[in-house]
Amino acid sequence: MTALASRQVSDPPRRGFWHLTWPALVGLAAAAGVALTYQLFVRRSLGQSVDTAALQGADVGHPRAVEIMTRALNGTTLISLVVVCLAAAAIGVIRRRIDLAVGAGLLVIAANLTTQLLKTRLDRPDLDGFPAPNSFPSGHTTAAASVAFALVLVLPPAIRGIVSLAGATYVTVIAVATVWAEWHRPSDTIAALLIVLAWGGLVAAVLRARRIHVPAVAGRRSRVSTLLFLITAAVTATAAAVGLLAVAMSERLTPELVSGRFAFLTGAAGITAAVAATFLIWVRLAAGDTTSTPVDADGGTR
Questions:
Q1: What is the torsional sign of CA 257, 259, 264, 269?
Q2: pLDDT digit string (tens) for 64-73?
Q3: What pTM, to 2 d.p., does this model score?
């Protein structure tokens, strides 16, 4: 037993090149996704038309759905976000992981500053006959997603799965609600998610590089949350792709082919798919920072 314990201490699992580089690659890909979303849905006439159709079709009349979305929007205030950020920092300190606390704070601040900078600097040409100031990306969605990512990062691996599911649900409601309230188009919310993921990838890469010499253990991942995210992303992405094709045909070839409500539901499906995919990736990135607990020669932990 003593020999086994000693071998566990002397031969920790090695962190490979891919372990250190793929978070940065995820961040770069997400940043490229923001640029692509802007080009397709803001700088192109058809993209603007499809996006605006989803915005104008948001006439949800179900009382319970309206109540949930209204409460979610009203509850997303600067004070509530600051409280969650402070809680995330406190958790990192309690776990004796100051690096996680700092990383979570950097993620929230950088993502929200980036969103506000892009919103004020990017141009939105009037290509669909629906003049409106630029709303790309969504500030509400960025705020909600960034604090959810921060909590997932600082919490112990054993509960990251359930927290990520709760966070993804909340972010989905917020993102869809901003479209329902006609504050944002679907592309605004998807771009916001990608901005948060881009900064999350950068933070994860720095955290992994900083702890490259710390012994690692296999990250504990929730199979339930992973499966739910995969199923949700696959089903809603398929629905969004089919719906997007139908809305595009309605806008360009066959007017009145689909209703405004259909366009809104298509946008909601695309948002749901984006949330599920980004949270699935983020949980895996956060799990990659798991490190081993030191083991004494007698097999105990310290």
A1: negative
A2: 555 666 666 6
A3: 0.84
